[in-house]
Amino acid sequence: MRRTHRILISALAAGALSTALVACSSPEGDDDPEAPDSETTEEATTDPAEEETDDAAAMGDVDLATAETSLGEVIVDGAGMTAYYFSNDVPDSGTSACEGDCLVNWPPITTESETPTVEGVTAEVGTITAADGSFQVTVDGRPIYLFVGDAAPGDVNGQAVQDVWWVIAPDGAEIGN
């Protein structure tokens, strides 16, 4: 029985899927020492930590969503990272003013489709063609970006950098400007 618990705990700690099979003894406790462990298996039950992983994966199915941060509710990409506007971008111009070294620190939020999938964003969402040919996501006609200084979801370290980078509210408004 101890071996079974170690296997189950190891599988859960490694983020195993709920469909992974775990070797265990019979429920009556009458283990047959001759029977190989693989003959008596059960499905592992879902662990709350796995549900959080599933929620994170589900967020990855959208291009934009909303999340709570220290600045309130903001637009985030599919991985939960904060989205930013660049004040030098002209709304509805179809281009990004962030080029060269700017893109190193402020990578564009891109999507595989001309019609991004959104959840919780009430502003108008679209795309423009980025310099590399990908679809850069726009909010209210303005290209949006990530900040390399944000290490984790919820970080807003790019807010007001050089007084031209702004976190975006779900309705498309700049936060703090």
UniProtKB/TrEMBL annotation:
<dbReference type="GO" id="GO:0043448">
    <property type="term" value="P:alkane catabolic process"/>
</dbReference>
<feature type="region of interest" description="Disordered">
    <location>
        <begin position="24"/>
        <end position="59"/>
    </location>
</feature>
<feature type="signal peptide">
    <location>
        <begin position="1"/>
        <end position="23"/>
    </location>
</feature>
<feature type="compositionally biased region" description="Acidic residues">
    <location>
        <begin position="28"/>
        <end position="55"/>
    </location>
</feature>
<protein>
    <recommendedName>
        <fullName>Lipoprotein with Yx(FWY)xxD motif</fullName>
    </recommendedName>
</protein>
<keyword id="KW-0732">Signal</keyword>
<dbReference type="InterPro" id="IPR005297">
    <property type="entry name" value="Lipoprotein_repeat"/>
</dbReference>
<dbReference type="Pfam" id="PF03640">
    <property type="entry name" value="Lipoprotein_15"/>
</dbReference>
